[in-house]
């Protein structure tokens, strides 16, 4: 009789580590806000994942509260958990910088995932471009929700190091290897 090794041995199994799966089932702020300053929905056409982000901003134009509805794979859910765990108090510029750093990291043009805590958990996903959209989805929706809130309230974030005081959508993605 042959024995079967049930331990994960494929590269794909590294995508779904115990830590990723634990994050996926424990998403903070996993409820919609009744009164939001901004809301945005993002969908991934590749995998069908969907994230809705609602936010309120404080007087300093930082995230005061957020709510989310996440319908995504385990990677998208884990990313939403990490994003929402560390989002309160963040500015639009910080969220954009983190979103862009994550995209560059996943795409291989950056060696680290940037300043947002624990995004290095997605290192094994770098080899699977079809998974990148799901991992980035919550950050994309957060940027959209914050821009919507800023435009609706006619509030501008503090001047960035780029000299802009208007809501914006991207920073450059440069190699840092």
Task: Describe the protein in words.
The chain is of the alpha+beta class and 177 residues long. The chain has one domain (17-152): Sufe protein. Chain: A (Alpha-Beta Complex), CATH 3.90.1010.10. It has helices at 18-24, 74-85, 92-107, 129-152, and strands at 38-43, 50-57, 63-71. It has a three-stranded antiparallel beta sheet with strand order 1-2-3, with helices on one face. Strand 1 (38-43) and strand 2 (50-57) form a beta hairpin. The longest helix is centred in the C-terminal third of the chain and has 24 residues, at 129-152. The radius of gyration is 17 Å and the shape is globular. The N and C termini lie far apart (50 Å). Mean pLDDT is 84; it is low at 1-9, 158-167 and 171-177.
Short synopsis of the structure:
The chain is built from four helices and three strands; from the N terminus they run H-E-E-E-H-H-H. By secondary structure, the chain is an alpha+beta fold.
For the structure shown, list the relevant keywords.
Sufe protein. Chain: A; three-stranded antiparallel beta sheet; 4 helices; disordered N terminus; disordered C terminus
